[in-house]
Amino acid sequence: MANRDLRRGPWLEGEDEILTTIVGALGEKHWDALAKQSGLRRSGKSCRLRWMNYLRPNLKHGEITQEEEAIILDLHKHWGSKWSKIAKRLPGRTDNEIKNYWRSHLKKKLEAQQAGTKSNTKQDTAIPIRDRSIQCISTKSSMSGNEGIFGTSSISETPEMCDMNALGNDSPYESRISEWISSCCSWPSDQVIDDEDCMGTYTYPCFSQLGSSCEESKNHGVWDLWNPIWEMS
DNA sequence: AATAGAGCCAACCGCCACTAA
DNA sequence: GTTAGTGGCGGTTGGCTCTAT
Predict the structure, then answer these.
(1) Same fold? A9-55, A66-111
(2) How many Å apart are A75 CA and C2 C1'?
(3) Which terminus of chain A has fewer Cβ atoms in its 10 Å neighbourhood, N or C?
(4) Which residues form the Myb-like domain (predicted)?
């Protein structure tokens, strides 16, 4: 189909239904072929985008929560504008949504914060890595809806604190953590964790099963996994 | 009530990486 | 090794809604 024949602009309800049906039948791949087969006068790219950002099951369409906001802020510090990477850490959210949220809410917020803190030079508390890790686990635990510590600086101060990459890609401890995670997680099927990104704590929903304290985390085995890492540091 | 400006978000664009021929 | 096709990503834009005047 020539480009000029392609429809553009907002999607109609009928188009959504057709796309949903055809993706259900053919799967989320071969978007060009799928677009042609559907009879929709849309490009494959357009179909993919509509599906990924709006029609896909399990998408959240509500407001970004404070917890999600904290994660976005932290991961943005860590990765910059790697929106798709960040989106993978927030099940049900799309890269586009996060990007828009960042631009319309967080960027200004952050700039205002920085402007405010510039005058009184920030004290870097230089938390030892051991303590950072403890904080990190506690932080994730708060995501279960228990009283949490999001909103404090603990999570955003130290991008490396939960970064498994910092330990080296073939760390035996990373493997152990991965094994443990896969044994206890009910990771959503649409979530893909690649090795390169494999970082701990709030990456994994299963941590929310751990209760709200380090003590409880201990009881669930996290302590054993992290301990050797702390010892190494 | 009218209107201008700001904010927000869905969708598009262009580039890059990957893969198959 | 080269090329064309495709998918994925980040940046940008257009248009709708909200708010202030």
Answers:
(1) yes
(2) 39
(3) N
(4) 3-55, 56-106
* CA–CA distance, A194 with A196 (Å, rounded to integer): 5
Is the full-model pTM beyond 0.90?
Answer: no
Q: Which helix (H) or strand (E) holds A51?
A: none
Instruction: State which nucleotides on strand B lie below 7 Å from a protein beta carbon.
Output: 7-14
**CA–CA distance, A200 with A223 (Å, rounded to integer):** 13
Nearest nucleotide to the CA of A43, by C1', is B12
Domain assignments of chain A as residue spans, ordered by start: 9-55, 66-111, 129-232
**From the alpha carbon of A30, which nucleotide's C1' atom is closest?**
C6
Q: Which of A92, A190, A214, A200 is nearest to A141 (CA)?
A: A214
pLDDT in tens, A11-20: 888 888 888 8
Distance in Å, residue A231 CA to nucleotide C8 C1': 40
Phi, psi of A43 (to 5 degrees): -75, 160
Q: Which nucleotide is nearest to A97 (CA to C1')?
A: B9
Q: Tens digit of pLDDT for each residue in A189-228?
A: 333 333 344 443 333 333 333 333 333 333 333 333 333 3
Residue A21: which residues within 8 A CB-CB, separation 6 or more?
Answer: none
Superfamily of domain A66-111: Homeodomain-like (1.10.10.60)
Q: Give the CA A45 to C1' B15 distance in Å.
A: 14
Q: What is the CATH number of domain A9-55?
A: 1.10.10.60
pLDDT of residue A3 exceeding 80: no
